[in-house]
Design brief:
- This protein is mostly helical and 427 residues long.
- It has one domain (2-425).
- The protein is 70% helix and 0% strand.
- It has helices at residues 2-24, 29-33, 51-70, 72-80, 83-94, 102-125, 128-152, 154-157, 174-194, 199-216, 219-234, 242-267, 269-275, 285-296, 317-324, 334-367, 371-389, 399-416.
- The two termini are 23 Å apart.
């Protein structure tokens, strides 16, 4: 009887974790609630009632914290293992007191705490290998659903308006779809390399994933994914002996530098941007960054409060809107958006924590010989690259932040276990 109850709880947690991560990825429900509107339709998204999405989030957070409380000793031990995330959450919450939009900051502070809680739960409940299996389910389900949406109900699955014909799947925008699926391709690739009975399935999902990203017409996602595939090979260098590894890194750096000079000198920057379908302003992003930087200088240390800056023509974001003459809802650079929200103080804490996590992931890579040994470093690389031209973690309320938190806590647990990735990592 007790075993039966334990199995029921186990399956409940598995399904609930998958659904929770799907929800914080902003898939399906926001698309349905907005009725499949498109960029350029002239409809103000803020005028739509999306409150049900917020209520679902709060329900998920409550269940997550109940599950964490059931294993409060391991949860507390893991949470206290990363002081920098604790400090970052403190800055996020205290930004309420200097926010230009306190109500908005309070709401998104709750989201940030809840989403971090999801990451903490995943890290304390599942090993890195099990986390990769969870992500296989999540990315696989959303990929198949996205293709079905495009075929069965194209009004939702395929964009109209400015980006007519671009695949957005179960997300509200093609760039959001592309940004989400890029690390999914890496997950499928690592799982396929593992071999086994279902390796053929992961290869099939990888091919579908690549095709879907091409159909999304998201240049940033395709470029990031392509670079990550190359890094899957390059990062193997870190498993070599130190003397060989150092020589290989220096050689790779030199070749990369020479290649950059060749591209800049003989191909020409304009030709290169034309080749990838962009211009030297990165579709106007450089102009946005310039105007955002003007506003950052007005409140450089503490920022405007979490998620408080972007309010259309109201407040300081109006300066960017008027200067760009188009609707701008984020900086198109995650690091600038964090700076806007919680200032240089908050950005500094995040960067220190990020670098620390990267160093831990390098140690894990050297001490393990499994696909999950590669995953933390590859995902951290994705976070770095994707936030140069987009903002995948700037609100601290996304599946990317939840996965980042899960990896950070998982690496701390792995360090305490001498980087032995086994079932024993589940305390």
């Amino acid at each position: 009887m007790f075993k039966s109850k334990s199995n029921i709880l186990k399956y409940f947690e598995f399904v609930f974790t998958i659904l929770s991560l799907i929800h914080v990825s902003q898939a399906i429900i926001p698309l349905l609630l907005t009725g499949g509107i498109n960029e350029g339709d002239g409809i103000d998204v803020t005028s739509l009632d999306l409150s049900i999405n917020a209520k679902i989030s709060v329900f998920i957070y409550l269940v997550i914290f109940v599950l964490l409380a059931m294993r409060w000793k391991r949860s507390l031990a893991a949470f206290s293992s990363n002081v920098l995330i604790l400090i970052l959450l403190g800055i996020i919450c205290f930004s309420y007191f200097w926010s230009i939009n306190p109500d908005q900051t309070l709401r998104f502070s709750i989201y940030a705490i809840g989403t971090t809680g999801i990451g903490l739960y995943v890290a304390t409940r599942y090993t890195l290998a099990e986390q990769m299996q969870l992500l296989n389910w999540i990315y696989g389900l959303l990929l198949i659903l996205s293709i079905l949406f495009a075929i069965v109900i194209p009004k939702y699955g395929i964009m109209g308006g400015v980006h007519e014909g671009a695949l957005r799947g179960v997300f509200t925008h093609k760039n959001q779809f592309g940004a989400f699926m890029a690390p999914g391709g890496v997950i499928f690739l690592l799982s396929a390399f593992r071999g086994g009975t279902y390796s053929w399935l992961y290869w099939c999902l990888l091919v579908l994933n690549c095709g879907a990203m091409v159909m999304s017409q998201s240049t940033t996602a395709l470029g990031t994914f392509g670079l990550m595939l190359i890094l899957c090979l390059i990062y193997r260098i870190f498993r070599w002996r130190y003397e060989v590894m150092v020589s290989a890194i220096l050689a790779a750096t030199l070749l990369g530098f020479v290649g950059l000079i060749v591209v800049a000198g003989y191909v020409g920057s304009d030709s290169l941007f034309d080749f990838v379908g962009k211009d030297t302003t990165l579709s106007g992003r450089t102009y946005i960054w310039q105007y955002v930087w003007d506003q950052i200088q007005l409140r450089p240390w503490l920022g405007y409060g979490l998620d408080a800056f972007w309010n259309g023509y109201d407040g300081p974001s109006g300066y960017v809107q008027l200067a760009m003459r188009i609707a701008v809802i984020y900086a198109h650079n995650g690091f600038l958006d964090i700076w806007l929200s919680i200032g240089l103080v908050g950005l500094g804490v995040f960067i220190i924590g990020f670098v620390s996590t990267v160093l831990q992931s390098l140690v894990l890579l050297r001490k393990s010989n499994t696909p999950e040994g590669f995953w933390p470093l590859l995902f951290l690389t994705y976070i770095l690259l994707s936030n140069l031209t987009e903002g995948t973690i700037s609100s601290f309320n996304s599946s990317f932040w939840a996965i980042y938190a899960a990896i950070t806590y998982s690496l701390a647990i792995a360090e305490s276990k001498k980087y032995t990735i086994t079932e024993e990592l589940v305390l």
